[in-house]
Batch of 4 targets.
Target 1
Amino acid sequence: MIKIGHRGAKGYVAENTLASFEKALTLNVDAVELDVHLSSDKVVMVIHDDTVTRTTTKTGLVTEYTAFELNQMGVPTLENVLDLIDRKCIVNIEIKEPKATQEVIRMIEGYVSNQHWDYAQFQISSFNWEVLEEVSRTNSAILTGVLTEDSIEKALAFAEKNTCYSINPYFKLLNPENTQLIRKKGFKIYPWTVNSEEDLIFVKSLEVDGIISDFPDNI
């Protein structure tokens, strides 16, 4: 069972910051999960919301700012994060903005070709399943994870049709029956976001393949 740090180590350090990913590495995570949007100059930025309001001192849409301006607010580029991680763990890139898809694919291909990364060290996940279809069409070597917060059955049907790698469900959707079914169909199971001791005990009892948590050291 692998330990996946949610937005770095969100329970300890401000989410999706370089400091948060550094913290996750010190906690010996097997993987980190992060979120991406595009800046106004089409640079892939690591930030969860489509606005900067919640996580910076500024307001407005991410797409209204350049990469340099976002960097000044403490928002890293995906390149910043990948260079920091430097193959020390797997990186699960959740694409929030579909327009970022091709740029993320190009970046992954570049890190595999030029920086000695392996495709197995990346996963692209999304709640927008059209993004996952686009990834599979463009480069089937990139692993894809189907994010869902409402239906394991629909996620499974999509994953089978599109040869995805994993189902990444809201953990409360899981039970022994559907977990066994996912496993039988050959997909990995990476539930999110599991934080409390009680919830961790429950999810571990299902023998999932990995857990996404704000406190990955508790897994």
Target 2
Amino acid sequence: MDSVVTEIKGMERIKSVMVKNLKKNSIKELEIEGIFIEICLEVKTDFIKDLVKLDENGHIVINCKCETYHPNTDKIHPGIFASGDVADTPFKQIVISAGEGCKAALQAYNYLHADKSKVVADWVSRRK
């Protein structure tokens, strides 16, 4: 956490990166074959802080059904779901965000149709 990549080297393929240690003010070259660039580490949830519960890092607190909570409580906030990098789930990777997004969408579908029909967006539930 005290280092930054200052340069990516290679023409047709990545060969190495130059890494600067900010504490020691030193630079070293690391030979690598690939690189993953993370776009953002900062969560922007200030606009929703009065609507749902946030953790100490600003992530929206959710349960396993992607349901949110009222601010500063453990009471479910009906009809508001969250997923992806903005939620307090670990492992901020696109494949996990996509899966959590699908789960949140299915939960929202079920929430919207709860009083209107017996349609449930889950094939296991339909067999019952």
Target 3
Amino acid sequence: MNKFLRIGWQSALALLISINMGVVYAQGEEQVNTNETIVREFIAAWSNLDVEELIGYFAKDGTYHNMPMAPVTGQDNLHGFIKAFLASWEKTDWEITNLLVNGDLVMVERVDRTSVGGRYVELPCLGVFEMENGKIKVWRDYFDMATFTNAMATAEGE
């Protein structure tokens, strides 16, 4: 009988732990879905070419690090940096090819297709987003600068 109670107690503890972990997993799953949704919306928002809308996705002290360049931190600085990009853009559409989420980390492989000063650029990128309270705390974008400059040079030569 004592052996039966011990097994019963262990089974009860295992059940309690699994129920508790399920609650934690469900809460984590909700955060993952929220972060994924926010990043997907942010990427789609680039098509609107609206600086104010894009800045709204960042934390007040958020950082954008376009890896070939120096990082830019703070919404005021980000506003100027992004506005400079968009000044020559006529149209852009970013296609997500892969997206991975682990809590507050969202990684997005994508192809950015942009019309810049009458030229078309197709740029494969990898964006790494660190999220905090529903905002982008840090965004690092990795791409080959030569792909961009070659596309611009080829378009100029046509």
Target 4
Amino acid sequence: MNVELVPATRAQKKQQTRAALVEAAWALFRLRGFQGTTVDAIAAAAGVGRRTVFRYFGNKEELFFCDHEARLNHFSVLLLTRLPDEPAVVAVQRAFLAVAETLMAQRGRERIRSQMIQDSDLLMAAERVRDLRWELAVAQALGGDRRARIEAGALWGVVRATLREWFDSDCSEDLVVLAVEAFELLAVGVR
């Protein structure tokens, strides 16, 4: 037995289990809604026990927002690769456009997610907490001081408005095009 293959096999098994949980959860969310889906039902659909679900996710909301951390980390890395003379608005636009492409690729799930969030005070509150983390990532990338926090609030406001337009269109519009238009409006200035 090759000892070097064992850790890779365990890691692969963990990835498979996590993916199975996410797939099962989202199949049930689509079918029953967020409130109508239980952790026990997710575990059963994934072929694992309830305790296994909690080894991978702290609660059902984490399953619902399963891709949040990866997206936020990717966005943060893109912000941190900012060129020394690159304006903050360009750095945020560049990073958001990359995220927008990912969201477009998953627009079916994002449309459903948005509808479920609008129907649940719990999910709205959970989304707000996550949204603030994105704004904080922008502020930190811009230096973290008072000016950076204010600029981050303004820049993230453009992103929020763009996302709201996309969700209001039932995710039918091209989010990347909307984002480019929004940042062009920002460049022109407020009327």
